[in-house]
């Protein structure tokens, strides 16, 4: 088996070194294996054939039909299953000069026919094309006029829309300004009312404390000597704790209770005032909004009336223009 696999030609043996032997390295076993693998790869690529280039072919006929061969040459000739065969013989002088052979022109087969068309047999182009041109030109003019009217109407609508948007933005800005001003005024009023109430409460508290202090001093200064004298005469003396309770704790309790009741009454009064102011402001806002809605409705009605009037005028102008064009066309036809 090893002897059969060896190459027959010594020139193709990898173990044979060709060329200069002085500079050629000594091949090793690994180099021989690599050379053999490369040779096999090159051989396999060479043997492998390229795929044929696909060419377009005539598609298959549809159901119920079949293809038929058709001649596409410049001269048609009859096709036969078996061509005609004739035998012709001639003898010429070998020294005779032969003229140039003429170009072969095959004899035409079949019959040729012709016909004649006299002037006026088919149609008059200028006469027949006139109504078609009238229809096309009329349609083109009508379409162009319609487009011009639509463009003008779109321009008017765009201008009206811009005007309306500008007015609406102006009104919205004015309403927002008025609302912000009213809000600031209400906040300032509430702050001033709160400051005034706080100041009044502090003044009343200070006045009541001063009055109570003065009254207490007067009473104590006038009754102190008499009380002590009487108590000493009767042999009784008031306890310090009871005196503190009656002279300091109970008046303080009465004053605190009175102050709390007064604060509650003031708070109730302030709440009632705020509710009244809020109801008045709400009524004013509702009346203002109703006025704005009424103004907007009037403007919308005016705008619709103006649009209807403009549309009516445009329709009348288009109608008059169409009548004038029809009249001009009729005069031109006459």
Task: Report the count of strand segments.
Answer: 0
- Please estimate the helix content: 55-70%
The arrangement of helices and strands along the chain is: HHHH
Strand content: under 5%
Alpha-beta classification: mainly alpha
The biggest sheet amounts to: none
General shape: elongated
SS summary, helix count? 4
Protein topology:
Blueprint: H1 2-5, H2 29-47, H3 125-234, H4 240-333
Describe this structure in words.
The chain is mainly α and 334 residues long. Helices cover 68% and strands 0% of the residues. The chain contains 4 helices and no strands. The protein has helices at residues 2-5, 29-47, 125-234, 240-333. It is elongated and about 200 Å long. The two termini are 114 Å apart. The model has no long low-confidence stretch (mean pLDDT 80).
């Amino acid at each position: 088996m090893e002897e059969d696999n060896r190459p027959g030609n010594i020139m193709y043996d990898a173990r044979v070194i060709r060329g200069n032997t002085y500079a050629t390295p000594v091949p090793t076993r690994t180099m021989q294996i690599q050379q053999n693998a490369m040779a096999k790869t090159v051989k396999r690529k060479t043997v492998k054939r390229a795929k044929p280039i696909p060419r377009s072919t005539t598609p298959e006929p549809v159901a119920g039909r079949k293809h038929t061969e058709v001649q596409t040459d410049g001269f048609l000739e009859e096709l036969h299953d078996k061509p005609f065969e004739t035998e012709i013989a001639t003898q010429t002088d070998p020294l005779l000069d032969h003229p140039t052979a003429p170009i072969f022109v095959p004899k035409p087969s079949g019959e040729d026919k012709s016909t004649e068309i006299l002037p006026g047999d088919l149609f008059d182009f200028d006469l027949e094309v006139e109504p078609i041109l009238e229809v096309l030109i009329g349609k083109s003019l009508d379409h162009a006029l319609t487009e011009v009217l639509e463009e003008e109407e779109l321009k008017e609508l765009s201008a009206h829309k811009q005007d309306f948007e500008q007015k609406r933005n102006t009104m919205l800005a004015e309403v927002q300004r008025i609302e912000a001003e009213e809000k600031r005024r209400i906040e300032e009023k509430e702050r001033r009312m709160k400051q005034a109430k706080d100041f009044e409460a502090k003044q009343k508290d200070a006045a009541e404390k001063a009055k109570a202090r003065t009254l207490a001093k007067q009473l104590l200064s006038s009754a102190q000597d008499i009380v002590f004298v009487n108590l000493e005469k009767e042999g009784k003396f008031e306890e310090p704790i009871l005196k503190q309770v009656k002279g300091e704790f109970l008046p303080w309790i009465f004053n605190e209770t009175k102050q709390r009741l007064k604060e509650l009454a003031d708070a109730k009064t302030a709440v009632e005032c705020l509710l009244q102011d809020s109801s008045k402001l709400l009524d004013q806002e509702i009346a203002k909004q109703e006025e704005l809605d009424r103004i907007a409705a009037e403007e919308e009605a005016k705008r619709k009336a103006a649009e209807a009037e403009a549309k009516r005028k445009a329709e009348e102008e288009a109608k008059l223009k169409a009548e004038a064009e029809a009249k001009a066309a009729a005069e031109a036809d006459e």
